[in-house]
Please model this.
Amino acid sequence: MEQRRLRLNEFKELYKAVKTGVVWLDYLLFSFVYWLEEKVINVRVENEVDEAIKEYETLHPEPPVLPIFRESPSDTSTSLPEMRLTAPWYDDTYDEK
Model:
């Protein structure tokens, strides 16, 4: 069985401050402090990752996406070509005959 230990000094000091000497109460207090430490670590990690992503996105903005212009002969008119303006992410495989 893995032994649980507190990782951050601030939570180690907190546990030492609230430790009573009663075994079952100390176990409950330790469990609560351990749970609280896990939550704090997760929040700190999420915030750091979010900030790093925001910083990366400001330093490396995405290039603007330009539309695709297409011109092809029209089936209905001989003098006017058919023109299309589509987004680059549009998949027109079902439009082909």
